[in-house]
Amino acid sequence: MIAYQTWLFILCGLMLTPWTIQAQSGIPNRGAGGNNSSPTFDEQFEEDTLDVKYFYQNSPRVVYSFDDTLLTHFHEFDISRLDGPTYLNLGIPGSPLRALIAAPGAYTGFSVGLDSYKPYYIDDHNFRFYESKKAITRVFYTKGQSQNDGVLRTSFGRSFKDRIRLSLDYNRYTNFGIYSRQAGRNTNLGVGIGYESKNQRLLIFASHYSNIFTQQHNGGITTDTLFTADFSEERTTIPTYLANAATRDDHKSLKINTYYQLFGRDSIKRDGGLWMQYVFRADNHYFKFSDTGLTAESADYYGSLITDSRGMRNFVEHRRIVNDISLNLGNVQNRVLKTGLRNIINNINQEPIQSKITEWKLYGDAKWNFADRLLLNSQAELNINRENASFWLVALLILILGRPDT
User: Fold this and answer.
1) pTM (2 d.p.)
2) From the DSSP assignment, how many helices (H) and strands (E) are in the chain?
3) Mapping DSSP to helix (H, G, I), strand (E, B) and coil, where does residue 232 land?
4) Who contacts 1 (Cβ-Cβ below 8 Å, separation ≥6)?
5) Are 28 and 40 in contact (CB under 8 A)?
6) How close are the terminal C-alpha atoms of the chain, in Å?
7) Cβ contact 368:379 at 8 Å
8) Is the separation of the CB atoms in 116 and 88 below 8 Å?
């Protein structure tokens, strides 16, 4: 009986094989004659009406094309690769980050060093201005470990009459954690307005950034002998060292960025000529950690760090005013020279210690293309502050051995 069924199955398969091959061979081929009975495709496609360009205010001459299709970019969220490098993290959205491979900072002078949340920031490096006759809206959402955890990103851009642009970015990271006292919430907001004069020689940008991070801390679990029931039911009842510790990292910025074409081309958006840039920026950044409900477990956790019976508290506030003026010569594609002077006034409040640091920096950028064979990119910065004189220099030299057009 089994042999009879086997031969019957093979016979049916052989009978269907020619039909299968014929159906597959009927797929039309571009430029080749096919079977008259084969289906045909309508190749008269309508042109895509979405023509959107965007740029960043630090480089308004470099314009990118906006793509809203998965054919060119596979959209995914990876918490370990938010800003290029690979980061170490706690594996949950919005958790503090640290670069897997340490690299020196591209600046000189004073820095508070509170950069664990910086890859999440909305700032000049990722805040876009759009060139479009239509309003642009983007929405992105991904769920975290539970239904209550997730990441929401929204962007909006619109151009108005009189050459005015409006951009809005909003990010929200929500995380309730695995154990008790692990909840965190990050809120990032960017709002910007751009104006272009009628003769296209003046560009003005006004932007505001708000990056707020709140995180609870539990110090870890005190015992691992209570895992007897289902973990999803008992995870929030496992005792932890800390019951009231929390962190708030708040960074707000206001920026005015102005470009003016002095000589050369008629438009600031075209290559070439000499143009001036002036930047005013005010930052207010404060960090606070507190634990006002000390218990026997938390006292054992902090140890000798407890200096006040009322609890633990660490507060740092950094207020900064930046004035920056520079001259730019050349075009984006071949040769660009930029030199400028930057003044930074730092006010640091550590309760009760307060200090002030004033910095003056000379800086320059150079980009040179020698006959499409040798490319040179270099940046330099000299801090002439008497309390902390230092310099920073980096250069990249690219030699093209093959044909430049390949």
Assistant:
1) 0.80
2) 3, 17
3) helix
4) none
5) yes
6) 67
7) no
8) no
Q: Degrees (nearest 5) of the Cα angle 48, 52, 57?
A: 165
SS (H, E, C) 318-354: EEEEEEEEEEEEECCCCEEEEEEEEEEEEEEECCCCE
Domain spans in the chain, listed from the N-terminal domain onward: 53-335+383-389
Token digits for 259? Answer: 């470009």
Would you write out the chain's pLDDT as a tens digit for each of its 406 residues?
445 444 444 444 444 444 333 333 333 443 444 445 555 555 665 555 667 889 999 988 888 888 766 555 555 556 656 666 788 887 777 888 888 887 777 778 888 888 889 989 999 999 999 988 788 899 988 887 777 788 899 999 998 888 899 999 999 999 888 888 888 999 999 999 999 998 888 999 999 999 999 999 988 888 777 666 666 667 777 888 998 999 999 999 999 999 998 887 655 556 667 889 999 999 999 999 999 888 888 888 998 888 888 889 899 999 999 999 999 887 666 778 899 999 999 999 998 899 999 999 999 998 888 777 788 889 999 998 877 788 888 888 888 887 756 5
